Amino acid sequence: MDLRLQNTRCISSSFRRSALLPHPRPAIGLSFCNKPTNNRKCRNMCAASNSDTIVKSTDITSKIEQEHADLRSWMERNGLPPCKVMLKDRPSHDSNLQPIHYVAASQDLQEGDVVFSIPNSLVVTLERVLGNESVAELLTTNKLSELACLALYLMYEKKQGKKSFWYPYIRELDRQRGRGQLAVESPLLWSEAELDYLTGSPTKAEVFERSEGIKREYNELDTVWFMAGSLFQQYPYDIPTEAFPFEIFKQAFVAVQSCVVHLQKVSLARRFALVPLGPPLLSYRSNCKAMLTAVDGAVQLVIDRPYKAGDPIVVWCGPQPNSKLLINYGFVDEDNSYDRLVVEASLNTEDPQYQNKRLAAQRNAKLSVQTFQIVVGKEREAVMDMLPYLRLGYVSDPSEMQSVLSSQGPICPVSSCMERAVLDQLAGYFISRLAGYPTTLTEDETLLADSNLSPKQRVATQLVKSEKKILKACLQATVDLINQLPDFSISPCPAPYALNLK
């Protein structure tokens, strides 16, 4: 049901009580109890979010209308000016989950239109959470990330239930449950079996690393509890790790991660913001240039393209590769011009010439462990950038090394046998990485053509497909360079201390 407002002041949609209705499985949003318990403390904590959970079917429409009115009046009561958007629904892939809300144009729009301006009274930042900018900077510099602080704040606010000022906004975040624009949660919340979809991709290791980082932050919560300003003064006896188990903190962290906005040209305490009508209600797109920006007393959105009434509004997600888009927001952009892979090359520490090679690398603005970014569409440029550094591994004669140290420009003199060896090593590396995936590009295409493919497997397949295309382009560029060598009969130079690639 699409409940349209009778005026044009702002948004319209059908809001259900997602934060309050019981789910058939643990809630992913900002909930803090995920199963029945006899523990009195936990029962008390759950009371705020589980009260009035049973709604008679005959009352559903009136409840939706009432909640919609509550959200509208909450935003308007706190200074929301007239705007040019509404909220619409798209179905979730899981019939047990409520539809995904998204922001759409409420009228025909032109490039340059200001579609909404959210007053600071409706924006959550660390400045508001902690009540002290210097404390915010201290915490996020030494102990906790901005995401951890914001997640913890909303978790405590949710304990207040309807008494919280942010109750209507928290209810909407609960409804979204950290799901991206394809209704897929971040891989940080996937099961081990679902993470196997990412086998071969460096993203899988990044997911485990990010999860460990969230765990470390959780373990730091108690140590900063009494120095965290106004938020913690409100709950002096509710020690975080006692109030919220790790899995629930992690779910809240991921939910906040999916909707936080990075504001530019503001103080550190305001740079990470949670903005109603912002993500995840706004969809991200890599080829968009519209951004949420801080203006005097508000956060506004100026669009970069025309829209027809009903079209979803999109914003720029920054220069993020698909691996980051998947981990942060649960989607992959197949037209992402910022997509990239990383190749790490390192000098062999057992090489007798290691120190000299390290010095030679430094003189050419490289490190002993150097990362190379391979941007989609610029694979040949990336290969050419790696070659001078890789040639260092094939210099073994001390006199040649001295010549390298005294020369300017390219790191190494190039012989035919050295170039063949370097290119062979690089080609072997790309072949090895491609072999690490359990499927081929052709098999990925077949999977994606299956309309019954699960959403998580779909986004994972889109990711590994984009990675393979970059690697295959790198391999082709390397093979092309091999084919340009003057004499194929030349044997590659030996390299007992070749550089390590990973």
TrEMBL record:
Record flagged with keyword S-adenosyl-L-methionine: yes
An annotated GO BP: methylation
Domain Rubisco LSMT substrate-binding: 349-471
InterPro entries noted in UniProt: Rubisco_LSMT_subst-bd, Rubisco_LSMT_subst-bd_sf, SET_dom_sf, SETD3_SETD6_MTase
One Pfam short name: Rubis-subs-bind
GO MF terms, alphabetically ordered: protein-lysine N-methyltransferase activity
Superkingdom, natural source: Eukaryota
The entry's keywords: Methyltransferase, S-adenosyl-L-methionine, Transferase
Protein name: Rubisco LSMT substrate-binding domain-containing protein
Organism this protein belongs to: Erythranthe guttata (Yellow monkey flower)
Organism lineage: Eukaryota, Viridiplantae, Streptophyta, Embryophyta, Tracheophyta
